[in-house]
Structure formats: C-alpha cells, structure tokens
Amino acid sequence: MALAVVVLARTRNLFAVVVLSGLYSFLMATVLLALDAVDVAMTEAAVGAGVSTVLLLGALHLCKSEEAKPAHRPWLPLALASVTALVLIYGAMGLPDFADPQAPIHQHVVPRYLQNEVDVPNVVTAVLASFRGYDTLGETTVVFTAGAGIIALLRRPGRRARVEEAPPCADLLLRLIGKLLIPFVLLFALYVQFHGDYGPGGGFQAGVIFASGIVFYALIFGVENARRVMPDRLVERMIAAGVLLYLGVGVAGLLLGGNFLDYFVLDPDPVHGQHRGIFWVEVGVLITVCGVMLKIFYMFASRGRGEERG
Amino acid sequence: MSLSAQLPALQVVLPLLSAPLAVLLRRGWLAFAVVTAAAWAAFAIAIGLWLQVDALPSNGVISYHIGSWAPPWGIEYRIDRLTSFVLVLVSGMAALVLPYSRASIAREIPQESHYLFYAMLGLCLAGLLGITITGDAFNVFVFLEISSLSAYVLIALGRDRRALAASYRYLIMGSIGATFIVIGIGFLYLMTGTLNLADMAARIGAIESSRPVLAALAFLTVGISLKLALFPLHQWLPNAYTYAPSAVTAFLAATATKVSVYVLIRFYFSVFGDSLVFHKLPLPQLMLWLSLLALFAASFIAIFQDNLKRLFAYSSVGQIGYITLGLSFDSVNGLTASIVHLFNHGIAKAAIFLLIGALVVGIARPGAAPPAPTFDRLAGLARRMPLTSFGIVIAGLSLIGVPGTAGFISKWYLVLAALEKGQLWLVGAILLSSLLAVAYVWRFVEAAYFQAPPPGRELKREAPLSLLIPAWVLVLASVWFGLDTSLTLGSAVEVAEGLVRHRP
Residue A198 has what pLDDT? Predict the structure, then answer.
C-alpha cells in the first residue's frame, strides 16, 4: 500500500493513477477484512475499487491523460501533511492496545449491542440500521445530496443532445460473458441486500453492486441500451424515493405513537417491528445508492460523447 | 404521542423531507412551495422549542431519543438554551432567505435547475439544524457532511464561471476540515467508548491529559477552524461568498460559519471542559493572536477590494475574529460577547448580502443578467436605489459597532471582557479595528452618496419589493437588537454563565 501511494504521488500519467488507486482500494479492503470488518471491506471493494474506478475512467475520458506539471514544488503541503501524520502518530501511541478487551471502546456501549435485542444475527446491521439508524439516514442523505448536486452541476442547459450512439462493443466474447454474468451480478446484489441481516451486506453494498451490474451492461451494450432499461427519469426518481422511503419509515414510527425512527411500534411484536423497520430502511438505502451511482455514470457517459464533438 | 414532545425530531426531519420531495416534484414553484413551507415550519418549531426551554428550570435540557434507544446506545437530541438560540437564528434566516431567493435566482440560475436549488437549500438547512440540535459526536459529522456538500453545490450554481473554482476550493478545504473532525471524534470514541457528547464529557475527565485526547483536541480545533474560517484558514471564504448566488451568500454568511462556532463552543466548553482547553495548553493565547490577525489583516484587505461582495466577504473573516476573540478570554463576558456577536453579525451580514443581491438587480440593464457589484458601477447609487443603499449603510453601522445598533452590544461586551482581564491595549485594538470597518463601509457611502451617477442613469429604479422586504426585516432587526437586548443578551449571559461557571 505504501508503495502504491508513493507511486501515485509521483506518476504523471492519470490512467496509471486511476488504476493504482483502484489497487490501493483493494489492498485496503483486504486490510479491513483482516481486521474482521467484513461489511466495511465489502463496501470498500465495491465502491472504492469498483465503481469509483469506472467513474474516474469515465472522467479521464473527458480530459487529457497527462497531469500538467505543477508550477512550484509543493513543499508547504508536504510539511503540513507530515505534521498531521506526526500528530496522528503521537495520538495513536497512547491508544489502548489493539483488540484489548479492557479498552473503553469494548466496555461501555458495545456489550448492549452484542446482546442482540433486535434479534438480527449481524450486529453491524443492527447498529447501523437500528441503534444508530439516524446516522445511516444522514449518510443516505449525503449520497442523495451528492446525486442531486451532480445533476445540478453537470446538467447541460436547454437541449437534449441527441448524439448518435457509438457502436456497441462488437466483441462476441465480451457480449457472451456479459450476458452470462450480468444476471448473476444483479442476483448477487439482491442476495447481499436481503441477507444483510444474517451475514455481511446491506443496502449500501447491494446498491453499488446492482448499479455496477447495470454499468457493466452499459459498457458492453452501449449506454443507450442501458438507458432503455433504466431511463434517466426513473433513476432521478429513485434517488429521491430511497431517501423518502427511509424518512417515511421514521415518520411511520412517529405516527404510530413512538419517537422518530422508532421501529418497536411498527408491529405489535416489538422485535418483529425492528425487523420490519430494518428491512424497509435498507430497501431505501439500496434505491438511493443505486440511483445515484447510475446517475453519475450516465452523466459522465453522455457528457463525454457530446464534448468530443464540441 | 403529543406533538410538542416530537418537536426536536420534526425540527430537522421537515426540512430533510422537503429536499427529496422537491426533487420528485421537479417544478420550480412546487419545489419552492415545499421547501419554503418546511423552512417556515422549522422556524415555528424553533420558537416552540425556545418556549419549551424557557419553561424548564435554569440550565434545563430537553432530551429526545431517536428510535427510542436511550443514549449512549442510540442517538440523542439535546436542546439547551444555546442550542435553541442557534436553532432560531438558522431557521429564521432560512425563512427569510427563501422568499427572497425566488425573485433572486430567477435572474441568476437557469430555470430548469431551480428545483435542485431549493432541494439543496432545504438540505443545507436540515444539515445545519442537525449539527446544532444533536447531542452525538458522529451525528455532528454526518450532518456536517450534508450541509457542506449542499453548500458546495449551492456556491457552484453561481452564474460566474469562477463560482466553480471557488466551490472546488471550498470543497477541498472543507473536506480536509471534515476529515480532521472525524479523526478527532474517532480518537475520542476510542478513549471514552461513547459517541454521546454529554456521556463523553463525563468520561473524559479522568483521561484528559492522555495523548489521544490531546491529539483529538488538536484535530478538532484545526478541523472546526477550517469550517469557521479562522484567519489563516479562511482562504476558501472570500471567493465562495463572492461568486455564489446572492441568496446563498446571505444564507451561508449568516449561518454556516456561525454553526461551526457553535460546534467549537460545544467541544471546548461542554466536552473537553475549559480547564483542559484554557488552563493547561497555550490555546487561548494562540486564538487571541489569530483573532487579532483576523481583525486587522482581513479588515485591511477588505478596504482595498473592488467588488462590494468581496469586500464584505473579507469583512466576515474579520468579524469572525471578534467571535473567536471573545472565546479566547474564557470569561462570562467574553463568551457572552461571542454568542451575541454570532447572532448580531449574522443578521447584519445577511442583510448586507441580501441588499447587494437587490443592488445587482437594480444596476443590471433590463433583461440582462446581473453584473458584479464593482465600485465603478455603484457611483451615485443612492439616488437610483435609496432604500437599498440606506439599508446597506445601516447594517454597515452595525458592523462598525455604532451605539444604537446590534454590533455595539457585542463590542461593548468584548471591551468589558478585555478590561476585566486588565488588558487595556486590547481595548485599543478593538477600537482600532473598528476604524478599519469604518473605512470599508465609508467606501460604499462615498461611492453611493457622494459620486455623481453616470449620465443616463439618474432615474430612480428601486429593486422589487420581494427582494427588499426580507432584507429590510433584517436591517430593522439589527437596529432592534441594538436597542432591546433582553432576548439576545439575556440568553447569551445565561448560556455563558452556564458554560463557564458550571465546570464538569
């Protein structure tokens, strides 16, 4: 990883930069896996290494692939970064040992999380969607904000550019493999989504995997074909609908006499109510995340073709 | 379920709901109606919460458990007097800026992006309210991200192409700030095992001199200072304010940096406890000198700006210096000054930026997009737009701190705090820096009142009322709060006493 970072900072070829940062993300995912943070590792692999590499390549398509030489040597940023690293190390030296069961982080709030009151085998899901469900609502809103912001900034004013379609990839092998793989990618996304209660997974990961299935399709069979499956208007609605669904679950808790995001009241049996709440909340996350990923991809893809001619 | 018990959740959820609704509706005016209704509702709720806090015994706290999980396991909303004060400021600004924005953005933003503009404004409002109201450290970060991301987009929507570069710069610096904040929170979580701020404060006492806590303090200080544009970390601010749409500038100037100040106060006084921050480390000295630098350097730079919006943006950096100066005293009077100034500067600056938005509409050629408010275009403005010019002058007086305006109150308490510490030279410095404010406000007065208008531009052509009314409400407010200080000063003193005297 250290090697990847040094090369990243030195190289001027942007294509290499993108590939290397994908590599970095994969390595990071392995580290997270080694730390037993499977859910985070999965997200890192799907988002960091998968979709963002595709998006960065899409962006690269729009600009030159060589970085301009900076006008001056960046000594000041280097010094600042070093100081930051020193403070970080200084602070980290005093931390409790890794995996020390006596560390405050394992003693205070965690025991109750592990008691599994909501009866969901995957504790991460329970904390994420129920105990701290409001943070997850916030994160989903962040994703929504990013999506809506991209639409606001990259929209091409006025006309609907009708650029003729670049011929879809003609390689028979690719088309064949694509046709074989894509259904499984989508199915896997759904598995990750609905199995999130029991194993690693959940709305964020599933949304990204689902979106990457569609992106894969678009890369092989052309963006216009992908648009026929998932039209622009639908994708934009999805972005908003997911957040609304999440908020709706929260408001339902309110209306049924509980607090905001109270899942206990969603069903006569409180534990069942928790399950119901977590289920719908995760669906909301899936819809928004998937919508935003696709929208960003579409935006870059359609822009690229227009700009080349301009 | 009674409605009044659910007000804390609704305070944030209503604006949050309005944003995806606005995106689904897609019509400019529908989105406007939804977001404006949410902002007004948020304002009403903020007042409702204010009254609820009033009904509590002194230093009382309203606690709301989201998802019915008790803190520290779940996320808690915690409202005390200071929270409520900032909530009223933020939601009140949104309630005023939204009606203004309808007429304002019609000239500045392409029609088909209007619904996204409103959605972003709703998100930004929800984010700022969420930061203020929450009692949970990680929740602060999440809502900080919402408000920051939407702010970047709002700034980039500015008509000038330089808005994009300004927004990009803000994005980079803001993200660094956010990363630092989350590193700081991470350290604190590792050491205390909790994310709830009140719980954290209770558990931090025993370990307050340990290395991770000191590192956390350092990261949080730098991160939040980036967000509140403390002097050497302010570089994102002038361009961002200058090129953003007028309504956005006014809203952000009045709220975004102020909420960051609030977060800083929360961490310094409520979590770390001021014994660590103010007695064991040289932080107050550092902050004192940075604040003084801000007062003089930024105000000095402001005097030489050619663009009126940029001038007042630099003035904001200077005025934030007064707020942090008050913090550095670590006394009841100093903190009172900070809190009052947070409010007083917010309304005066918002008034000025709203009026500049009206002004650029007035100096535009009919049908053309509004030009930048550079000084050569302002000659003789008072004859063409008397109400706009007069409003800017009054709000400018409040920036200077003339008696009878709100700005005077905050400066008065700063001077009191300095005298209390026996530092006469600081009193001199505060007065001297006010002279710099006189200089930059005078530049506008000179151009607008004493220069002859260019030929063919003598006709009176005031900005539309939809722009003038919200702006003038704020102008009058900054006079009102200079005369009747029971609301602002009363609560600020109460808060300051609570924070400084009741040490954990």
Answer: 74
For chain A, give the number of residues.
310
Residue B307 falls within a domain, yes or no?
A: yes
CB contact under 8 A, A145 and B123: yes
Closest CA to B377 of B463, B302, B439, B457: B457
Instruction: Write down the residue that tokens 């991770």 correspond to.
Output: B212
The sign of the CA dihedral B251, B253, B256, B259 is negative
**Burial class of A132 by CB neighbour count within 10 A (0 to 12, 13 to 18, 19+):** buried
B309 found inside a domain: yes
Tell me, what's the ipTM?
Answer: 0.87
Q: With contact defined as beta carbons under 8 Å apart, do A124 and A192 qualify?
A: no
Interface probe with A: pick from B3, B45, B75, most Cβ of A within 10 Å: B75
Work out how many domains chain A is built from and give that number.
1
> Which 465-504 residues of chain B touch chain A by CB within 8 A?
none
* C-alpha–C-alpha distance, residues A224 and A61, integer Å: 18
For residue A98, being part of any structural domain is answered with: no
Digit-coded pLDDT (tens) for B447-468: 888 888 777 666 677 788 888 8
**A16 inside domain:** no
Q: Residue A247 and residue B127: Cα distance in Å, rounded?
A: 15
CA distance readout (Å), A147 to A209, A214, B141, B342, B346 = 17, 17, 19, 33, 30
B100-122 pLDDT per residue, tens: 998 888 878 888 888 899 999 99
For an interface test with A, give the residue of B111, B154, B167, B190 to mutate (most A CBs within 10 A).
Answer: B190
- Domains of chain B: total: 1
Q: Residue B226: inside a domain, yes or no?
A: no
Cα(A98)–Cα(A106) distance, integer angstroms = 11
Which domain range does residue A194 map to?
121-309
User: What is the 3-state secondary structure of A91-157?
Assistant: HHHCCCCCCCCCCHHHHCCHHHHHCCCCCCCCHHHHHHHHHCHHHHHHHHHHHHHHHHHHHHHHCCC
The string of DSSP letters for chain A reads: -HHHHHHHHH--BHHHHHHHHHHHHHHHHHHHHHTT-HHHHHHIIIIIIIIHHHHHHHHHTTS-SBPPPPSS--HHHHHHHHHHHHHHHHHHHTSPPTT-TTSHHHHSSHHHHHT-TT--S-HHHHIIIIITHHHHHHHHHHHHHHHHHHHHHHPPSS----PPPPPPP--HHHHHHHHHHHHHHHHHHHHHHHTTTTSS--HHHHHHHHHHHHHHHHHHH-HHHHHHHS-HHHHHHHHHHHHHHHHHHHHHHHHTTS-TT--GGGSSSHHHHHHHHHHHHHHHHHHHHHHHHHHHHHHHHHHHHHHHH-
Q: pTM, whole model, 2 decimals?
A: 0.90
Which range marks the domain in which residue B456 is found?
282-504
Cβ–Cβ pairs < 8 A, chains A and B: 183
DSSP state of B331: S
Three-state DSSP at B380 gives coil
Residue B397 counted as domain residue: yes
For residue B443, give Cα distances in angstroms to A307, B303, B374, B458: 45, 8, 12, 20
